[in-house]
Amino acid sequence: MRLIHPRVDDVPVEVAYDLSGRPRPEDRPWVVMSMISTADGAVSLEGNSALLGGPTDREIFLHLHRSADSVLVGAETVRQDGYTPLPSHQVLVVVSETGDLGRNAAALTAAGNTRIVGGDVRDIVRDLPGRLCVLEGGPNLNAQMLAADLVDEICLTIAPRFVSGASQRIASGPLALREPWNLAHVATDDGFVFLRYARASSGD
């Protein structure tokens, strides 16, 4: 991928998205939101966000996903994208009111490291294990997390597509805090734009 801000350089994904130095806040893990949208704001094609991406976006997603101690995701995203069990050293935390995990429900629940939770996101995040959590949507969960000021960093891929339709934005729900974020980096590859934002208070 070609980094164009804050410097111009060809860098590997694992360097551009190195999360090893992120500090754990006092009462919760560091939370990184990982999302993709089209240039006109759609977060999925045919209900599946994976259909928007390309090879570099997939590499970024997997790098962030594998870097996490815990992955926080809504049940609708688990069902749509067909989540499978995580390795034993990670915890998959699914926010759900019904417990319906879709076609891979049996494997996910049998794995022993999948948690199904509900309630206030502040309580959910306080109970997350480890130093680093990656938040993978969907839009409703993202909105709750942003409104509660629980997201420290956002890694957003903009796909070179314009699809119109009624797809949701990356966050849809309660109003988030309106302070601007710091643009930590901009990179490109094959028409995709890769943005990383840090909260102004994070010091990045």
Return the average pLDDT rounded to an integer.
93
> How would you classify the helix and strand content by structural class?
alpha/beta
**Rg over alpha carbons:** 16 Å
CATH top level is: Alpha Beta
Element-level helix/strand string = EEHEHEHEHEHEHEEE
Side by side, the strands of the main sheet go 2-1-9-10-8-3-7-4-5-6
> Any idea how many domains?
1
Main β-sheet description: 10 strands, mixed
First-to-last CA distance: 21 Å
CATH homology superfamily name: Dihydrofolate Reductase, subunit A
State the CATH architecture: 3-Layer(aba) Sandwich
Helical fraction: 10-25%
Number of strands: 10
Q: Report the total helices.
A: 6
| Approximate strand percentage | 25-35%
Low-confidence stretches: none
Q: What name does CATH use for the topology? A: Dihydrofolate Reductase, subunit A
Q: What gross morphology would you assign? A: globular
